[in-house]
Amino acid sequence: MSPVRHAPVASRTILVACCVIFLWQWLEYPWGHLAGHALGFTPAYFFAGGTPQPYLSWAPFSVTLITYMFLHAGWLHLLGNMLCLWFFGDDVEDALGQPGFVIFYLFCGIAAALAQALLDPESTTPVIGASGAISGLLGAYLVVCPRSQITVRVPIFIVWDVVRLPVYVVLVFWFGVQLLYDVAGPEVGGGVAFRAHIGGFVAGLLLAPVFMFVTGRRRERLPDRERGLIR
Predict the structure, then answer these.
(1) Residue 180 is part of a domain; what is its CATH number?
(2) 8 Å CB contact between 80 and 18
(3) 225 belongs to a structural domain
(4) Sequence-separated (6 or more) residues with CB below 8 Å from residue 156
(5) Whole-model pTM?
(6) In the annotation, is 197 catalytic?
(7) Which of 11, 123, 131, 135 is catalytic?
(8) What are the C-alpha distances in Å from 173 to residues 45, 147, 177, 200?
(9) pLDDT tens digits, one per residue of 201-215
(10) Which of 45, 84, 101, 166 has CB 3.0 to 4.6 Å from 51, enough for a Cys bridge?
(11) How sure is the predictor about 229, in pLDDT bands with cuts at 50, 70 and 90?
(12) Residue 53 included in any domain
């Protein structure tokens, strides 16, 4: 018998919040444009206790560990993150419960930001985006639904074909790509915070069993479902 599924209120609320905040960033010039610098996570300013530029002191420096997750640099940045949140967030939320999901999501985002800052604590480049926290959801999905399958498009000779692969194959491959780009350096990655993806993913893997234990949730296999197309 399939477990009872609950409405993914928490993950959908986070999704809507990110979209609304992005619209504000896009429409409210110049404050929306400055939001990434004022509310993004900047390692050098975080470890220094704040920014030296008063007009960017919108909130206590420690708060940027959370606010950065709700900001995005562009439409494609937002769309990619929100699609992953839509596809994977509901099952993780169902496994952790709504309060547990929110706390877990924030913890993964914080771990991702600190992982990004670990090897470059003097960086003055702000980190923004939900991808660190969502990488944590991907790690948690391996724990929650280890036998699920994902529909993907893969190149076979000169054509693309649609196949279904075990979730661990897709996500382990994704994790390997993040590692390769991080090793290759920022000049190859195009400014993407790959170390945050790695840190968030590892945090999700480690924290998901803990949260399931604390919230009293059992690890139940959910029905296999298509998780959309990942190119």
Answers:
(1) 1.20.1540.10
(2) no
(3) no
(4) none
(5) 0.87
(6) yes
(7) 131
(8) 34, 16, 6, 16
(9) 999 999 999 999 887
(10) 45
(11) very low
(12) yes
